[in-house]
């Protein structure tokens, strides 16, 4: 019983000591997106450009790994009015934000030579759920 009471007192003291630290970090108590973070809804549907400001394609989807991190960015390349292109996978670390838009240090030819990426796996059923129809706003309001 004494051990339980001591544990409760110790935990209470820890909470009271930590409270001013939490308030110092954010006076409103709200957690906000950071300047180095982007929302998935702003990335999906956005155009991707090369270093010479030529459009390479459009982000179709993000593939999340089992651990919760973004594993791949799926970019539709070579399509015209939604037809004739293919999806290719690039690493999220290869995608940069430059002047409020997404850029990739690759050429259109390099992406055209990349293997196609299928967003559905018929043997496992992975990727069968549809992506939302909204998004594609990686412009000036990235947050």
Molecular structure report:
The chain has 143 residues and is an alpha+beta fold. The protein has one domain: SH3 type barrels (Roll), CATH 2.30.30.240. Helix content is 24%, strand content 24%. The chain contains 3 helices and 6 strands, in the order H-H-E-E-E-E-E-E-H. The chain has helices spanning 2-25, 40-43, 108-113, and strands spanning 47-49, 55-64, 70-77, 86-90, 95-98, 101-104. The protein has a 6-stranded mixed beta sheet. Strand 3 and strand 4 form a beta hairpin. Residues 1-24 and 139-143 have low confidence and may be disordered.
Specify the CATH architecture: Roll
Number of strands: 6
Count of distinct structural domains: 1
Helix fraction, binned, reads 10-25%
Q: Roughly how many Å is the radius of gyration?
A: 22 Å
Q: How far apart lie the N and C ends?
A: 50 Å
Give the C-level CATH assignment: Mainly Beta
